[in-house]
Design goal:
Layout lengths: L3 H24 L4 E9 L5 E9 L4 H10 L1 H12 L8 E6 L2 H13 L1
Parallel strand pairs: 2-3
Antiparallel strand pairs: 1-2
Helix pairs in contact: 1-3
C-alpha cells in the first residue's frame, strides 16, 4: 500500500516519463511506448516503471534500447522534476504484460 506522497510522486514520474517516451518513440521509428504504471519505494529512491510497447515485434529491441539509454532518460526526468524532487529516483523498467494476460484469459474462456 503506497502512501499519499508515494502516489503523488508516482503520478508525477508517470506524466513526465510519458512525455519523454513520446519523443523517444519517434526516434525509434514510430514505436509507441506508454507508461502504464509507476511504483515508488517507501524511501522514494527507486521507481519501478511498467511500460507497454507497440508493435509487439519491437518489444525486445525497444526494451533493450531503453535499458541502454537508462541514464539519459533519468537525466531528462531529473531536468523536468528538479524543482519538485530532492532526489531523482533510480528507474527500473519492466514490461507490462497485462494486455497479454487479458488476451490469454479471453482465449481460455472461449474454449
Amino acid at each position: 500500500m503506497q502512501t499519499t506522497r508515494q502516489n503523488k510522486i508516482s503520478r508525477l514520474i508517470q506524466k513526465d516519463l510519458s512525455d519523454i517516451f513520446l519523443r523517444y518513440g519517434r526516434q525509434l521509428g514510430g514505436t509507441l511506448i506508454s507508461v502504464s504504471e509507476v511504483r515508488v519505494s517507501p524511501d522514494l529512491a527507486i521507481a519501478h516503471v511498467y511500460l507497454s510497447i507497440f508493435p509487439q515485434a519491437k518489444v525486445a529491441s525497444t526494451l533493450e534500447r531503453i535499458e541502454q539509454d537508462h541514464s539519459k532518460i533519468r537525466g531528462e526526468m531529473g531536468t523536468l522534476e528538479r524543482h519538485q524532487l530532492r532526489i531523482i529516483p533510480e528507474l527500473h523498467f519492466h514490461l507490462d504484460e497485462t494486455i497479454e494476460r487479458m488476451e490469454h484469459i479471453d482465449e481460455l474462456l472461449k474454449h
